[in-house]
Design brief:
Low-confidence stretches of chain B: none
Structural class of chain A: alpha/beta
Mean pLDDT of chain B: 95
Strand order of the largest sheet of chain B: 9-11-10-12-13-18-17-16-14-15
Number of strands of chain A: 38
Helix content of chain B: 10-25%
Number of helices of chain A: 36
CATH class of the largest domain in chain A: Alpha Beta
Helix content of chain A: 25-40%
Largest interface: A-B, 57 and 54 residues
Shape of chain A: globular
CATH superfamily of the largest domain in chain B: Class I glutamine amidotransferase (GATase) domain
Order of helices and strands of chain B: EEHEEEEHEHEHHEEHEHEHEHEEEEEH
Distance between the termini of chain A: 48 Å
Largest sheet of chain B: 10 strands, mixed
Number of helices of chain B: 10
Number of domains of chain A: 6
CATH architecture of the largest domain in chain B: 3-Layer(aba) Sandwich
Number of strands of chain B: 18
Radius of gyration of chain B: 20 Å
Structural class of chain B: alpha/beta
Number of domains of chain B: 2
CATH topology of the largest domain in chain B: Rossmann fold
Shape of chain B: globular
Largest sheet of chain A: 7 strands, antiparallel
Oligomer: heterodimer
Low-confidence stretches of chain A: none
CATH superfamily of the largest domain in chain A: ATP-grasp fold, B domain
CATH topology of the largest domain in chain A: D-amino Acid Aminotransferase, Chain A, domain 1
CATH architecture of the largest domain in chain A: 2-Layer Sandwich
Chain lengths: 1079, 363
């Protein structure tokens, strides 16, 4: 069965903004699918609202729509493009849900669009937990006993039978959103209510608790001829009860005998057949009772997933790529294994190494969030490490996390590891509860002398894993007590995965000393290939990992080559946008004739797809690992400016070791980041900066703040995403802050800037070749100063800035780039206050906004930058000026507040968004409307608005509220605000604040009587009232805004939508229009 | 130490004592080490597991394929000192020591695998360094090579024995034990066959005396060309027009019996992930494999055996994986449908055998 000739065009849906539970793994899958379908000659139409993705690069699909992923908007795309088929399985839960909605509403039938890969029946069968349970019982498989409920009463009836603890899972949600574990009736009622609300169909499943059972996943592929293969088995380190996205996971399964594995394999095959996924991949989760082997099917995802991305990287079997090909009719045996190229894809990969995935959390950003891990995912990213043994992979995994620890080492104090004390009793108590710190607590427990059995019993982690970890702890203490770190001992420790830095710490040496000694012995890692077949066949694709063994398989070619350093695990402040830049660089450098060598540790990314670069090293981004690769490969240079802070932090050390850095020099980077050197530069260029100072002690900080005047913006130097950045209004708050900030970054001083209240902020990204500078665009922030630029919505071209200020920003960007000698990308942040343009920050590297700006304007900034780094000149390219493009593009941020109960939704200078969307249209209003819809903030067309604002905001909010009133909205306001508004002719009905009696504002929110909330708070220390109000809005999905400028923009958006102008336009078509306009 | 002089250092971890000698091969199965160790087809071979961690889930008597392990030695990257599985009774290391099986761990097994892949399966020895390189190499080279070696007489049963059918006995099956695995017997018995298991050199007349409904030719070790009495056996069975089902060595015996030629593969097929194309159903089966020799084929034909046609082909390298007689109820596969260890995709072949017997004598 070769590919289908009866379809010519395929519509593909992405997964929208990065949120917890749905991250860039879908960019990886979608990008593969786009490329796979293009190869076959199909016209590929893509819809994704996330501009930071690689898949939305206009070079990839034939028609790229950066439009909201809602049925309404996707229908417009279908109407415009008339695709023959829709592949629903590549865009995560969002893609799947939208596809199903379009099917149910008859839209697909109306336009003659066929669902390929998985049909509506299969999707529903897999996704609806009740139907799924019935289907599984039909084929003799057990699901956790329990039942379904559509109301609290039904739920309580089910709970009678399952007893507690019980697990509550809402149907049709992603990342376990709205799920929970209940240990008693009170918790159960609470969890059931949350779950019923979270489920789009108001259905929850109540499971018998299988907490403590072992958890496994199998990745399955099937084609139209009913050939089925298992791509990978995955075993969770953490037992059932922890979301698999939050679990440390291991591939292949470690503690299953073949007999047991085959039972699971048979069950998976029966499952995919019964559910009827005709052609594509799916993920099936199992729970196994460690006492007697009883096996239950937990769930099935009839689509690509985070696990399938991991499985693809773990095995070298590209699930999304093969999934796309079988969806258009190919049989597995007609497709080649992409790595061996000689053998077919109809096989089951075997591994001769072990893969460990470690999740990365962001609890440091959300100190008030509940740290206990459960059925709702909380991790924001992950790393994967490959080693020849579990121990080696484990050590490499923890060494990749970039969480301030050198690897799997416990913190300086018990508090660092989430403990109050480190006596046996406290440790055992802590180990019972799964948290992000548990792996470190296990190490403390073993080091304290607790037995493998004790640790395993309380944590429910399989004793095999704990035994492995105890071997590491023993090895450590043996090495530490050696008289001399001999060559043999060092070799054994390197084989166990210990980094030079950790070895150094064990014996009070520097990592450099360990490295020097090791190099003196000629002891280097060898690189082995991920080849899908455990060495049985030759591999054509160099996908490599390091280990300490006898044979090195990585052969240096004689081509000109460049190493690109990736961005490591996703975290808040560093996500898919940097992967976009790295991948762009790899593509551009390949076109320039270089062999491209990628180094990264993040399995979710496109950059770690083995066919994106010529050579892929799946390695931790540490100095040690990068140096070894550079030494082996001898590249002409290393690209450090594309992957965010991760590679940038390595730049100066690499430079010191004589490694050539491509593009902007290390000295220029330092000149931009070093406060004093930069000030000198600013003076020289006559550029204004807000009054500022630097403090290395608390006393000095107070002195500086007094000199420049409150409010001040304080932050540690060299940080990412505004970590620990705060606006401080008085001395007391400064004292309070200072202790916390010092801990955030001990080696660096604290920066103190005058905070420009009510200023407009803007970001500029530009490319320079050392002489010429091309400005990519000026992006105006919609929120006022004080909100982190990564959290603020922004718009290009600027809509409220004066032309002269915009021009000044362009000029200053050029001047700075030239003065610094930037070769590559530069980002400058500006603020405008009282007619003065201030420079807030200069970053001579790729910024978060590069992909958004590139999509908005059509200039591929990252690719241009990469070309400049290898000597090309900007003059050689025909580039449009940044103000010549057509349309308006609004970027809106997306926050994880709904996933992290207990966290305040108030924005500030510390970045907290996980992702972004873009709305692009011909008017600001429509672009804003699209951005809001895409970000999941449905805009009310009419209804009731509640206004509760800070005293000083009342004058400014009045005209906005008046517009809403004149548009026919009913206005409610808290008493003070209501009085103020009524005095100005706006009929505002007063509502009670929380402490004023009931029903109060939160009651109204919860009862669903409010359609939009405008709430501005009182500084950083928000009142309890404000907090309650915002949490209620988030829980009930009521759109809200905490700034006035955003409220005004929302009003524009409502007006745009009221005119029902649901216009869609592909990026390619927009670019063509731009060209037409020029002619 | 390999016969070509390559050395692969590691730590001895199994039974202590003499130099273990055999043909070194690799198996790519992720799990199933115990079934592999006890599979009589591995007699005379030193098995390298490409999966790096071996022993994790211990050893359980139910997973034995024979009463004892048959491998000549085991090579692994890391032997797990601790096992964790509810079924397990003992650790792999204890089991190896108890049964006198040599094991070397800490080896760069991927390097060894790649070496075997390019240079072929060859003789090797596992022993303590103290013996000296020259001594080991000499003894490795004195060890008989696999080609031309009949090992069925080593592993076959000495006595005829019976295995009762599970449930109602519908058919009588004569089993030729060239090194039969317990799982094959169990599956046949599970299909309602009462089994009589004969030593591999039993004359056909003796086996046919028991009036069986079908004959099962088992898997086994060594060079098929060296197995005695093959022509006579197949001739007699063909004359009777009795259903015959062969697996692995049994497949080679059937093929040679009808005139086909066998040859040694460079490094064989050993693992649980080999895709086999069923030419009739056009489906792909993921199969369990363990063979160092293969039957020569040409398209759908089998040179030298015009009566046979190819039914299954390996998708990796195009080698023959199954044959069927064009007229008689005789079929055989090179791979292991009983799959212990390995996937269960091909268990339908046992149904097919039973169907053929049923056609001749409705139960």
């Amino acid at each position: 069965m070769p590919k289908r000739e009866d379809i010519q065009s395929v519509l593909l849906l992405g997964s929208g903004p990065i949120v917890i539970g749905q991250a860039c793994e879908f960019d990886y899958s979608g990008t593969q699918a786009v490329r796979a379908l293009k190869e076959e000659g199909y016209r590929v139409i893509l819809v994704n609202s996330n501009p930071a993705t690689i898949m939305t690069d206009p070079d990839l699909a034939d028609a790229t729509y950066v439009e909201p992923l809602t049925p309404e908007w996707v229908e417009r795309v279908i109407e415009a493009e008339r695709p023959d088929a829709l592949l629903p399985t590549m865009g995560g839960q969002v893609g799947l849900n939208v596809s199903l909605d379009l099917y149910d509403s008859g839209t697909l039938e109306k336009y003659g669009v066929e669902l390929i890969g998985a049909d509506a029946r299969a999707i529903r069968l897999a996704e609806d937990r009740e139907q799924f349970a019935t289907a599984m019982r039909r084929i003799g498989l057990e699901v956790p006993h329990g039942g379904f409920a559509h109301s609290l009463e039904e739920a309580l009836a089910v709970a009678e039978e399952t007893s507690f603890p019980a697990i509550i899972r809402p149907s049709f949600t992603l990342g376990g959103t709205g799920g929970g574990i209940a240990y008693n009736r009170d918790e159960f009622e609470q969890a059931a209510r949350t779950g019923l609300e979270a489920s789009p169909i108001g259905e929850i499943l109540i499971d018998k608790s299988v907490i403590g059972w072992k958890e496994y996943e199998l990745e399955v592929m099937r084609d139209h001829a009913d050939n089925v293969v298992i791509v990978c088995s995955i075993e969770n380190f953490d037992a059932m009860g922890v979301h698999t996205g939050d679990s440390i996971t291991v591939a292949p399964a470690m503690t299953l005998s073949d007999a047991e594995y085959q039972v699971m394999r048979d069950a998976s095959i029966a499952c995919i057949r019964e559910i009827g996924v005709a052609a594509g991949g799916c993920n099936i989760q199992f729970a196994v009772n460690p006492q007697n082997g009883e096996m239950l099917v937990i769930e099935m995802n009839p689509r690509v997933s985070r696990s399938s991305a991991l499985a693809s990287k773990a095995t070298g079997f590209p699930i999304a790529r093969i999934g796309a090909k079988v969806a258009v009719g190919y049989r597995l045996d007609e497709l080649p294994n992409a790595i061996t190229r000689e053998t077919p894809a109809s096989f089951e990969p075997v591994l001769d190494y072990v893969v460990v995935k470690v999740p990365r959390f962001a609890f440091e950003k959300f100190p008030s969030a509940d740290p206990i891990l459960g059925v709702q995912m909380k991790a924001v990213g992950e790393v994967m490490a490959i080693g020849r043994t579990f121990k080696e992979a484990w050590m490499k995994g923890f060494g990749s996390l970039e969480n301030g620890r050198a690897g799997w080492e416990y913190g300086a104090t018990p508090g660092d590891d989430g403990l109050t004390a480190d006596d046996d009793e406290s440790l055992l108590a802590a180990l019972r509860r799964p948290t992000a710190d548990r792996a470190f607590q296990v190490k403390r427990a073993l080091a304290n002398g607790l037995s493998v059995e004790q640790v395993s019993e309380v944590s429910h982690i399989d004793p095999w894993f704990i035994e492995q970890l105890s071997e590491l702890v023993t090895a450590e203490s043996c090495y530490a007590s050696l008289a001399e770190p001999t060559r043999e001992a060092t070799w054994e420790m390197k084989r166990l995965g210990f980094s030079d830095e950790l070895l150094g710490k064990l014996r009070d040496e520097t990592a450099a000393a360990v490295r020097e000694r090791r190099w003196g012995w000629g002891m280097h890692p060898s690189y082995k290939m991920v080849d899908t077949c455990a060495g049985e066949f030759p591999a054509a694709t160099p996908y490599l990992y390091s280990t300490y063994e006898e044979e090195n398989e990585s052969v240096r070619s004689d081509r000109r080559k460049v190493v690109v350093l990736g961005s490591g695990p996703n975290r808040i402040g560093q996500g898919v946008e940097f992967d976009y830049c790295c991948v762009s660089a790899a593509f551009a450098l390949a076109e320039e004739g270089f062999e491209t060598i990628m180094v990264n540790s993040n399995p979710e990314t496109v950059s770690t797809d083995f066919d994106v670069s010529d050579k892929l090293y799946f390695e931790p981004l540490t100095l040690e690992n990068v140096l070894e690769i550079v030494q082996l490969e001898q590249p002409e240079g290393v690209v450090v400016q594309m992957g965010g802070q991760t590679p940038l932090k390595l730049a100066s050390k690499l430079h010191e070791m004589g490694v050539p850095i491509l593009g902007t020099s290390v000295d220029a980077i330092d000149r931009a980041e070093d406060r004093e050197r930069f000030e000198a530069l600013a003076r020289e260029l006559e550029i204004d900066q807000p009054p500022n100072g630097l403090a290395v002690s608390e006393a000095q900080a107070i002195e500086v703040a007094q000199r420049i005047g409150y409010p001040v913006l304080v932050r540690p130097s060299y940080v990412l995403g505004g970590r620990a950045m705060e606006i401080v209004y008085d001395e007391e708050s400064l004292e309070d802050y200072f202790e916390r900030a010092i801990r955030a970054s001990p080696e660096h001083p604290v920066l103190i800037d005058s905070f420009l209240e009510d200023a407009f902020e803007a970001d500029v990204d530009a490319v320079a070749d050392g002489e010429d500078v091309v400005v990519g665009g000026v992006m105006q922030h919609i929120e006022d100063a004080g909100i982190h630029s990564g959290d603020s919505a922004c718009v290009v071209p600027p809509y409220l800035l004066r032309d002269e200020h915009v021009e000044q920003m362009r000029q200053r960007t050029r001047a700075l780039a030239q003065a610094l000698g930037v070769v590559g990308l530069i980002n400058v942040q500006f603020a405008v206050k009282d007619g003065v343009v201030y420079v807030l920050e200069v970053n001579p590297r790729a910024s978060r906004t590069v992909p958004y700006l590139s999509k908005a304007t059509g200039n591929p900034l990252a690719r241009l930058a990469a070309r400049c780094m290898v000597g090309r000149r900007l003059k050689e390219f025909e580039l449009k000026a940044d103000d010549e493009f057509q349309g308006v593009a609004v970027k809106e941020s997306v926050f994880p507040f709904d996933k992290l109960p207990g966290v305040d939704a108030l924005l500030g200078p510390e970045m907290r968004s996980t992702g972004e969307v873009m709305g692009i249209a011909d008017s600001f209003g429509l672009a804003m409307a699209k951005a809001q819809v895409a970000a999941g903030n449905p805009l009310p067309m009419s209804g009731r608005i509640v206004v509760t604002v800070h005293e000083q905001d009342k004058p400014n909010v009045t005209p906005i509220v008046r517009r809403f009133h004149e548009l026919g909205f009913e206005i409610w306001a808290t008493s003070g605000t209501a009085r103020y508004l009524r005095a100005r002719g706006i009929p505002a009905r007063p509502v009670l604040k929380v402490h004023e009696g009931r029903p109060h504002i939160v009651d109204h929110l919860i009862s669903g009587e409010i359609d939009l909330l405008i709430n501005t708070p009182l500084g950083k220390h928000a009142q309890f009232d404000d907090y309650e109000i915002r949490r209620a809005a988030i829980q009930r999905g009521v759109p809200y805004t905490t700034t006035l400028s955003a409220a005004s923009a929302l009003c524009d958006a409502v007006i745009a939508l009221r005119h029902r102008k649901l216009q869609v336009l592909s990026l390619q078509e927009r670019a063509r229009r731009g060209e037409m306009a020029e002619v | 130490m390999l016969e070509d002089g390559s050395a692969f250092p590691g730590r001895l971890a199994g039974a202590e004592g003499e130099l273990a000698l055999g043909e070194v091969v690799f198996n790519t199965s992720l799990a199933g080490y115990q079934e592999i160790l006890t599979d009589p087809s591995y007699a005379g071979q030193i098995v390298t597991m490409t999966a790096p961690l071996i022993g994790n889930y211990g050893v359980t008597p139910e997973d034995d394929e024979a009463a004892r392990p048959w491998v000549a030695g085991l090579v692994v990257r890391e032997l797990s000192p601790k096992y964790s599985n509810w079924r397990a009774q003992t650790s792999l290391q204890e089991y190896l020591k108890e049964h006198g099986i040599a094991c070397i761990e800490g080896v760069d097994t991927r390097r060894l695998t790649r070496h075997i892949r390019s240079e072929g399966a060859m003789r090797c020895g596992i022993g303590p360094e103290e013996l000296g390189v020259d001594e080991i190499l000499e003894r490795v080279n004195q060890h008989p090579p696999m080609t031309g070696l009949d090992l069925t007489n080593v592993v076959t049963t000495r006595e005829v024995y019976k295995v009762p059918a599970k449930g109602i006995a519908r058919f009588r099956v004569a089993v030729y034990d060239f090194g039969v695995k317990r799982r094959s017997l169990g599956l046949l018995a599970g299909h309602g066959c009462s089994l009589t298991v004969y030593p591999s050199t039993t004359p056909a007349e003796v086996a046919l005396d028991g009036a069986p409904d079908g004959v099962f030719l088992s898997n086994g070790p060594g060079d098929p060309a060296a197995v005695p009495g093959v022509m006579e056996l197949i001739e007699s069975l063909a004359a009777k027009e009795i259903p015959v089902f062969g697996i692995c060595l049994g497949h080679q015996v059937v093929s040679r019996g009808f005139g086909a030629e066998t040859f040694k593969l460079l490094y064989g097929h050993r693992g649980g992930n080999h895709p086999v194309h069923n030419l009739a159903s056009r489906r792909v089966e993921i199969t369990s494999q363990n063979h160092g020799f293969a039957v020569r084929s040409e398209g759908e034909g089998v040179p030298g055996a015009p009566d046979l046609r190819a039914t299954h082909v390996n998708l990796n390298d195009g080698t023959l994986e199954g044959v069927r007689h064009r007229e008689l109820p005789v079929f055989a596969v090179q791979y292991h449908p009983e799959s212990a260890p390995g996937p269960h995709d091909s268990r339908y072949l046992f149904d097919e055998f039973v169907r053929l017997m049923g056609e001749r004598r409705p139960a």
